[in-house]
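USER: If only I could read backbone structure tokens as easily as an amino acid sequence. It would mean a lot if you studied the pair and described how this chain folds. Here is the record:
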Amino acid sequence: MRKSLHLMALSVIILSLVLFCCSKSTSTKKDGYLKIYLTDTPTDFDEVNIVVSEVWVHKASDDTLANWILLDSTVATYDLLVLRNGALALLDSSQLDPGHYTQLRLKVTDGSNVVVDGEPHDLQIPSGYTSGIKLNHQFTIEEGRVYELILDFDAEKSIIQKGTGEYQMKPVIRVIAVATTGEIEGTTDPADAQAFAIIDNDTVQTATDATGYFKLIGLAEGLYTVNIVPGDALYADTTFSDVEVVAGQTTDLGLIELRLK
């Protein structure tokens, strides 16, 4: 009997050690992190308000609903027009299992609108309320590392006014991996101007703030032509050629004194 008790006690100890080792092994696994930001290209609307109700990502494998992962279901409103010159709104910050992901999806809800001459107008977003705005962008989440994405809405290209007077959004959105991109900044004098960064067939634009400052973000590495277009017709355009953009760095054009025509 005493021998049996000793054997039972030994079995319990061995089982406890096995469970402890398994628990320890599991606890050392680290999730990765995904951060998603919103920014916008300027437009002439007073406001462009997007009400986001859900943020999803899709993990690589068969395209089934089971592989869509809900990151956030907090309803929040974003005025895209305040998100310019490097200003970003944090859309989501989540832990994710390491692995390869292929898509993002934003669901929007009632309340999205544009404001024109002080008057709000409902903004129709086809499929945005149901299946959501689906964005194809492949990325890999690595253990213990942060992967940052910027969703750059181009409100000017995205929003159209229909013949009925209603406004509709057909989203034109750049999905940008922060780690692989750089920036260009500068300050114009006079302050009112538009800045364009052009490479091949791709153009990124922004508008200066009240001080003349601008920042073009989410630019892939390469040599850009930067075109500054003054808001005042008395001043001539200014062009910079072969402006180099390096990932993780900001290229500063300094003070740009616009010349009279």
Remarks:
- Confidence is low (pLDDT under 50) at residues 1-29.
- The CA atoms of residues 235 and 259 lie 6 Å apart.
- The longest strand covers residues 47-59.
- The longest helix spans residues 2-27.
